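Example for tutorial group B:
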């Protein structure tokens, strides 16, 4: 399989975990390139369900090399918990999981700062973060005050941590937050460092060597395009580059070694957290999508906001990421609906918008311009070939591809591996 970036094309939660799991069969290496344990990929294998927050989804396939790249911020305690949970379920990570020594560490004080800052924001300015400390950890990275995984496993780690804690205690006091228990943190992270040391290495030469030897790499993104810190609905975004461009800077693999981009996109739209969402449905149809699609956050359990398919977002995402194919998910969630709507443009203050406006205040006032299509009102979850879809379902899929300008590569009609129709990738 060509070296492939697989990323979310909406506001995250598009079903990337399942698609990554399906595509891993043809890959030799799976590498996660950004984000932290604020993201969750849910993968169903047989009657088993796995929720992975930091580990690449490829870890569920025996023999696959899995890499956590330098673009992540890693909560080591959470990472160990995931490793231990998989080991209990008979999935080994030894000698096939590699963690970048350049990835930054998320500490308990990052979570405290995250929650403290969010609590002080007015209702209209709250971001709706998961409060996992991701934003403050990335802020430390950019401010050049962060601690990296290489520091965590170094012999002088405690002196590095103690030096950083002096500044942190002042920041916590300024926000009227309790001080960090330095002694407890020192002990916890010394124990964590001892257990994680065998996994930590310089993953940049490792990945480039594997590619030079002819191995195929699947680059796994978290969140989605509209949550990208540069291209998303800022400031209601995550703190990293969730778009395809993040794959190079988050792994050290140069752009010309990446062969294609597959965007994962739902047959409708959802988002979690605060921020504008033009096609949101606060009505029984939106509730049907939520219930049938089990639209609750894998990380937080929060109910997702649901709405009609937004082709403005789809076109924008295709442009920003250079999508070669869509992996379209959750078509089956729409099986019972008699009429479907597709947002093709926005209107605001007498102006038409073909692309997503940068100003969130403008986007919040945008009204979707819809076209309607008849629903198929028939089950699709048992379909295994594209030509066997109900004609109206096939027409809907074809229309989504047409209005976004991207070819269909994969169609998912259910959560299991078997409920996947491969078309072009």
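The residue assignment follows.
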């Amino acid at each position: 399989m060509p070296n492939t970036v697989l990323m979310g094309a909406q506001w995250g939660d598009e079903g990337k975990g399942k698609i990554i799991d399906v595509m891993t069969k043809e890959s030799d290496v799976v590498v996660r390139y950004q984000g932290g344990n604020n993201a969750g990929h849910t993968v169903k294998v047989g009657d088993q369900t796995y929720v992975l927050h930091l580990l690449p989804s490829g870890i569920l396939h025996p023999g696959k090399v899995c890499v956590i790249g330098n673009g992540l911020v890693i909560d080591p305690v959470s990472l160990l918990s995931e490793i231990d949970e998989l080991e209990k379920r008979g999935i080994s990570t030894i000698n096939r999981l590699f963690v970048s020594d350049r990835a930054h560490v998320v500490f308990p004080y990052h979570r405290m700062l995250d929650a403290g800052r969010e609590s002080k924001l007015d209702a209209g300015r709250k971001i709706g973060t998961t409060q996992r400390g991701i934003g403050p950890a990335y802020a430390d990275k950019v401010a050049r005050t962060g601690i990296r995984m290489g520091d965590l496993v170094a012999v002088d780690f405690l002196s590095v941590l103690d030096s950083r804690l002096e500044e942190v205690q002042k920041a916590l006091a300024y926000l009227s937050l309790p001080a960090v228990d330095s002694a407890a943190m020192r002990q916890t992270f010394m124990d964590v460092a001892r257990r994680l040391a065998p996994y930590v290495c310089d993953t940049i030469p490792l990945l480039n060597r594997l590619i030079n030897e002819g191995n195929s790499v699947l680059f796994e993104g978290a969140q989605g395009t509209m949550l990208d810190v540069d291209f998303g609905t800022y400031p209601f975004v995550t703190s990293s580059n969730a778009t395809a461009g993040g794959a190079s800077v988050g792994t050290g693999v140069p752009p010309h070694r990446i062969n294609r981009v597959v965007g994962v996109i739902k047959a409708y739209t959802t988002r979690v957290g605060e921020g504008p969402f033009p096609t949101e449905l606060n009505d029984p149809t939106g509730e049907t999508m939520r219930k049938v699609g089990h639209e609750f956050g894998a990380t937080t359990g929060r109910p997702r906001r649901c709405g009609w398919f937004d082709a403005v977002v789809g076109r924008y995402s295709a442009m920003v990421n250079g999508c070669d194919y869509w992996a379209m998910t959750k078509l089956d969630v729409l099986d019972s609906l008699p009429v479907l709507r597709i947002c093709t443009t926005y209107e605001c203050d007498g102006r038409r918008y073909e692309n997503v406006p940068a100003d969130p205040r403008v986007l919040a006032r945008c009204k979707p311009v819809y076209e309607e299509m008849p629903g198929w009102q028939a089950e699709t979850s048992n379909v295994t070939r594209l030509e066997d879809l109900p004609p109206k379902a096939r027409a809907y899929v074809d229309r989504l591809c047409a209005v976004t300008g991207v070819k269909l590569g994969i169609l998912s009609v259910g959560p299991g591996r078997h409920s996947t129709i491969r078309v072009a990738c």
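The first strand starts at residue 4 and ends at 8. Compare this with the pattern of hydrophobic and polar residues in the output above.
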